[in-house]
Design brief:
By secondary structure, the protein is of the alpha/beta class. The protein is built from twelve helices and nine strands. It has two domains: 151 residues, 3-Layer(aba) Sandwich (Rossmann fold); 165 residues, 3-Layer(aba) Sandwich (Rossmann fold), CATH 3.40.50. 39% of the residues lie in helices and 14% in strands. The strands form two sheets. A five-stranded parallel β-sheet has the order 7-6-5-8-9. Strands 2-1-3-4 form a four-stranded parallel β-sheet, sandwiched between helices. Strand 6, helix 8 and strand 7 form a beta-alpha-beta unit. The longest helix is centred in the last third of the chain and has 20 residues. The chain binds phosphoric acid mono(formamide)ester (CP). The site of phosphoric acid mono(formamide)ester has 9 residues, from helix 3.
Length: 338
């Protein structure tokens, strides 16, 4: 396998399965021996830039801790402190910003989604523009299409709780009603990476909540390639039957940007009408002793009940912890010569 040094990570689909396993295996080692000397100097004296257009709890904290634990430093950046050119204002181009940042840092993470883009795909275009001009790896810290670090943390959690061979295990990716109006990034990344690892995938949502058709087509292909099952249902209960993992999450409709900006209020009003779309203990009884997961933050009482989110089958905190380990592995592999 070629070295991963210098590679961008915008979506896990763009990395081979062996490359993803390399990240997961290193992350698992780093979890077991968190402060071992062989890891704590990997990014010594190096800086990772974290460029956040949107708020974050887990991503910012885990990347900062990851850089510290590898002996380096993560610097928080916001667009408001950078005088960047936008559609409405004069300023620095992406080419100039990316080329200059490449002279300072060993990697650049970017988060841009929801109300910080004016159409679906604009965030993905921005990351790819940075990747075009940068000499350092560009890492998605969640953008409007994908969330690769979350997808890897999810799979690390499933490998721990279900075993390393995920083939034949059923993932239910289920929409939850709620007031957070979330982008498609985490759910699209989840169904892409889980189908790469041979899982059967069921996506359940009310009519009108379709995901990106190109992503669904890719997931269908991943499932075909792995002889796994794929289905979409608009029934709030059916998908639970026989599931080994239930991953609930609210997501926006394909009309969220019809007005040329993110219509959060309209999306929330629509979503809150579907009260039967909550993951609860009764539905979890239909599963095959299924695990519950969610990328967080959770809208408890809407997407999922407290009983399930805090219950014995919930792996939400393990998965949140995994963000630290997978990001340490990604940084070590892409920003250091391993
Ligand atoms: N899952 C996740 O990315 O969490 P934050 O939005 O808090 O970073």
């Amino acid at each position: 396998m070629a070295s991963l040094t210098g590679r961008d990570l915008i979506c896990t689909q763009e990395w081979s399965r062996d490359e993803l396993i390399k990240v997961l295996e290193l992350a698992e080692k780093m979890q077991k021996k968190r402060f071992d000397k062989k890891f704590t100097k990997m990014l010594a004296h190096k800086t990772f830039f974290m460029f956040f257009y949107n708020p974050s709890v887990r991503t910012r904290q885990s990347f900062e801790c990851a850089a510290t634990e590898l002996g380096g430093h993560a610097q928080f950046l916001e667009p408001k402190s950078m005088r960047l050119k936008t559609a409405k204002t004069a300023g620095e181009t992406v080419e100039d910003a990316a080329r200059v940042m490449s002279r300072y840092a060993c990697g650049l993470g970017i988060r841009i989604l929801e109300d910080k883009v004016s159409y679906y795909g604009e965030g993905d275009e921005l990351l790819r523009e940075y990747a075009k001009w940068s000499d350092i790896p560009i890492i998605s810290m969640a953008h409007d299409k994908f969330h690769p670090c979350q997808g890897l943390a999810d799979v690390m959690g499933l490998r721990r709780h279900l075993g390393k061979n995920l083939k034949g295990k059923k993932l239910l990716q289920v929409w939850g009603h709620g007031a957070l109006s979330r982008s498609w990034c985490s759910v699209q990344e989840s169904i892409l990476i889980c189908s790469r690892f041979g899982m059967d995938v069921t996506v359940a949502y009310p009519e009108g909540y379709d995901l990106d058709p190109a992503v669904i087509e890719q997931v269908r292909k991943n499932c075909r390639d792995n002889k796994a099952k794929f289905e979409i249902t608009n029934d709030p209960r059916k998908g639970y039957e026989g599931a080994h993992v239930v991953y609930s999450r609210n997501w926006m409709t394909p009309h969220a940007y019809d007005k040329g900006e993110f219509d959060k209020q309209g999306e929330v009003e629509k979503a809150l009408k579907y009260t039967e779309w909550i993951c609860d203990a009764q539905k979890m009884k239909l599963t095959d002793d299924g695990l519950f997961t969610h990328p967080m933050p959770i809208d408890r009482g809407h997407e999922v009940t407290d009983e399930v989110a805090s219950g014995p089958h919930s792996i939400i905190y393990d998965v949140a912890e995994n963000r630290l380990h997978v990001q340490k592995a990604i940084m070590a592999l892409t920003m250091e010569k391993l």
